[in-house]
Amino acid sequence: MSSQKNNKLQSSLNTTLPIFKQVCVIGLGLIGASFAQAIKDNGLCARLVAVDRHAPSIIEAIEHGLLDAGSANLQDVIAGSDLIIIAVPVQAVQAVFVDIKQAMDNGQLASDCIMTDVCSTKVNIIDAAKAVFGSLPIGLVPAHPIAGAENSGYHARRASLFANHSVIICELPTTSPAAIAKLRLLWESVGANVMSMDAEHHDRILAHTSHLPHLLAFNLVEQLASHDDNLDMFRYAAGGFRDFTRIAASDPKMWHDIFFANQSAIVSALDEYGVYLQTMRQLIIDKDSTALMGLLGRAQAARRHFGHMLASTPYTDTSAMSASYNITPSNTVSGTIAIPGDKSISHRSIMLGSLATGVTNVTGFLEGEDALATLQAFRDMGVTIEGPDNGNLTIHGVGMNGLKPSKTPLYMGNSGTSMRLLSGILAAQSFDSVLTGDTSLNKRPMERVAAPLRTMGAVIQSTGHSGTAPLSITGRDTAGKPLQGAEYDMPVASAQVKSCLLLAGLWAEGTTTVTQPEISRDHTERMLSAFGYPVTVEGNRISVTGGGTLTGGDIAVPADISSAAFFMVAAAISQDSELTLTQVGINPTRTGVIDILKLMNADISLSNETHVGGEPVADITIRSSNLVGIEIPEHLVPLAIDEFPVLFIAASCAQGRTVLTGAKELRVKESDRIAVMAEGLHTLGIDCTVTDDGLIIEGKGAATESGEVNNDQPVFGGGHIVSHHDHRIAMSFSVASLRASQQITIEGVETVNTSFPGFAELANQIGMSIQVDTGAE
């Protein structure tokens, strides 16, 4: 039955409690007793009975008020039950079915009585039912709660055992839709997350994820116990041994039955495990450091990565958005601080280092979630990457044609840069790829890169009418001829689109030329040159010719000017402030924020200018300033596109009107940054007008005749700001607190970690007062 039909049927059920008249639990071990307690505590049945051969458990359950009746004999208590829960070892289920059939034949049970189980194998349950009943009963709903505990038995029961755990239901075509809907409702009522799965697929998956780990744990304990010095082995066993072998304390009879019941899938999983184990054995024998580090690094990262991929989150769950900033107004900042590494350069260091020949050592890498998504993608494609460790990475490049197909879609989290730049690289590979992201990223436009890639011969499919992710990219082995060099006139200046096409051009036949209407950030061009790949720049025309190679080397990532912008504005709008930001990247295609602030009369100076890894850097000092409103020159817009949210805060504190035009790009970032910022500014009492391609802000800064800075009066009120899952929105309104009269609360700040891990701590270090509320109970 489809989930849509199931949902309609479930909503049509009478959900007035109780759901069932009488529930009979067969087996009061851990799962059975816990399920019974959860049903009882939530009032989900009018009467609860149980069958168990252990008489003391039945007696105690009745004395505790858990059961209305119980017996060792099913026929004594089963009459009138409309739900039977089978919680016995899997090999004993067929005998239980025999007793249930007898009760049906005797008229004690209706033929449509719902029957379910909690066993961790499903095919044998279905086979046992066929053997006993002939044809599958319409009330049979095989189920498996993915929950358990080290201790078992009646006394180990916990009503909360299933809360926030998954329960798999196998929806058989022979089962009545009403039975499936009622059982789903029951599990959801005790806090479980219900999903559907085919029985054979369930057994294969559980063989790898549950049965194999238990088998290995039992086997490892047996191996160590068999040693002559076993006492010392257990005495000095480290935490890893204890954690891994904890599950070997589980019920041996239960696992004995499971291993036999799921024999075929478990043997297959064991065989596959043996191949991987032999591979690792050989790597250790050969002392193949690079390959072993690659295997260990991929495993370490995958443990964290796939959890977020399954939840479609950018390494933090943005669906609930429970975390917030509660900010008390403060009016001055001071000190000398280091800003995290540049996100754009961090992305590109992973991409080009992976495609290079030889080893690339990266320092200053931004360990934010967007850059980590790029790192994981290349690990998924077979690249060995050591780190990150305090911003240090070692990338063992595989060369221009060394990437391997990922076994799963490449998950980009919330990173538009990762998705758009990787599209160019993957369009030229021999294998097929799928790029996906979290809910927010999958709403952002991707045809802006897909369409020009198609003019080069790429076969790329976006999703839906608006051309969003997931993106499906067909490899050249299937698509046929290689990409062809092309000339592309960009309608809007975009470093992501430009970089995507230039990266695709590395494999294209002939020359690829991108002409941009305005200068945009040139990190890709600079880094290609640093890796030894020729790039031709003629004004706004940038060209690469396919067929070259990249050579690994050392990459030093400077501090991110986009992140520094929040602190530049913080110092400029506050009173008696002086702040120095060390070794910030001042790439001329990124310094629009400095140019705009200077036009607004900001007191900014640069010192200790030098070059790091081909990128210019400098210390930036900002002091309290009497800002004035301006009409922002359109040629500076592409050079400050990411910094406008915080520049809107600066404009609000300026004397007079600030007008921004030519900024449609802001409407397709992590949020519509023009609309969202205007919404927040209105909340804080700022008069602003949204235009088609920009914003008009009426600044509330005070005029001064003496020239002395007068930033001691609030321009913002207080209030509740919704960040709309946008990290730059959250950080910008944090800066506004420096000129606020009341507390500002910003909802949904988890995404700050995508670009600026540790932002709140650094802000508090210089004098701000941000309290992080994680929303945890």
From TrEMBL:
Quaternary structure and partners: Monomer.
A Pfam family the protein falls into: PDH_C
Residues covered by the Prephenate/arogenate dehydrogenase domain: 21-314
Species the sequence originates in: Psychrobacter proteolyticus
Binding site for 3-phosphoshikimate: 343-344, 348, 494, 496, 642, 669
Active site location: 642 (proton acceptor)
Catalytic activity: 3-phosphoshikimate + phosphoenolpyruvate = 5-O-(1-carboxyvinyl)-3-phosphoshikimate + phosphate
UniProt enzyme class: transferase
Pathway the protein contributes to: Metabolic intermediate biosynthesis; chorismate biosynthesis; chorismate from D-erythrose 4-phosphate and phosphoenolpyruvate: step 6/7
Keywords tagged on the record: Amino-acid biosynthesis, Aromatic amino acid biosynthesis, Cytoplasm, Oxidoreductase, Transferase
Ligand binding (phosphoenolpyruvate): 343, 416, 444, 496, 673, 728
Family: Belongs to the EPSP synthase family.
Official protein name in the record: 3-phosphoshikimate 1-carboxyvinyltransferase
Superkingdom per UniProt: Bacteria
